[in-house]
Amino acid sequence: MDNNLDAVDANEQTVGGLSRRSVVRTAAHAAWVAPAIAVATAAPALAVSGKKAKVKVKQTDAEYDTTTTGKGKKKKKFVTGFSLTTVVANNGNGDTDGPATLTVSFSKEKSGPFSKPPTLEKYNEGKWTLSGKPTAYTFTFVSNGPIDAHDDKAFRSEYSFNKPKYDQGPATSVSVAASATKGGADSDTVKLPKFDYDK
Fold first, then answer.
1. Band of the pLDDT at 135, cuts 50, 70, 90?
2. PROSITE patterns recorded for this chain (predicted)?
């Protein structure tokens, strides 16, 4: 018996100049090589997936818009509306891969200006678009394009009350919530103080 494994038996069939033993050995070698290739190609994908967006709401502020009528003892101060500003930032190292959504909500009160829904008068349309029809005390906006990594989009809006002039009103809350498909969500709440200009 010949113990040389590299020798080809007389009964061994050859295909295209390769013995059956050679074909088996070649297939076994390929089975070990294939996983090595798969691991090597997966590495870049893992590196890309490490970049993530992170939505953050900051610098939210709201204040009343007022007007004054009359002179001397008849002089009187009224609230006609209010303005809201906020900044939606991306604190991550990847973009949001799509627009961000910003929802502005107000608390309904039993009396005063927020006893009825306010009217949106204007907002910075260059960076945001009103999405759909406002529903009572909620307005939804969509950013014009994604928010890049370590960048932000400022939002400014002005609202008027259903009644032209209010001289009294309770405190109320204004909530701002932002989210993105890639970047998660964040929110902030600010208070509009109680006022009584009739005293």
1. confident
2. TAT
Judge if 63 and 34 occupy the same domain. no
Q: How many CB atoms lie within 10 A of CB 122?
A: 11
Domains held by the chain: number: 2
Q: What is the pLDDT of residues 85-104, one digit of tens each?
A: 999 999 999 999 999 999 99
How far apart CA 175 and CA 171 sit, in angstroms, is: 13
Q: For residues 168 and 85, state if they share a domain.
A: yes
**CA–CA dist 47, 5 (Å, integer):** 45
> Nearest 10 degrees: CA dihedral of 133, 139, 140, 144?
90
Residues 97, 27 within the same domain: no
Under 8 Å between Cβ of 104 and 78: no
DSSP string, the chain: ----TTSPPTT--EETTEEHHHHHHHHHHHHHHHHHHHHHHHHHHHHHHT----EEEEEEEEEEEEEEESSGGG-EEEEEEEEEEEEEEE-SSS--SSEEEEEEEE---SSSGGGS--EEEEE-TTTEEE-S--BTTEEEEEEEEE--TTEEEEEEEEEE-SSS-BSEE--EEEEEEEEETTTEEEEEEEEEPPEETT-
User: Cα separations (Å) of 40 from 36, 60, 75, 87?
Assistant: 6, 47, 78, 42
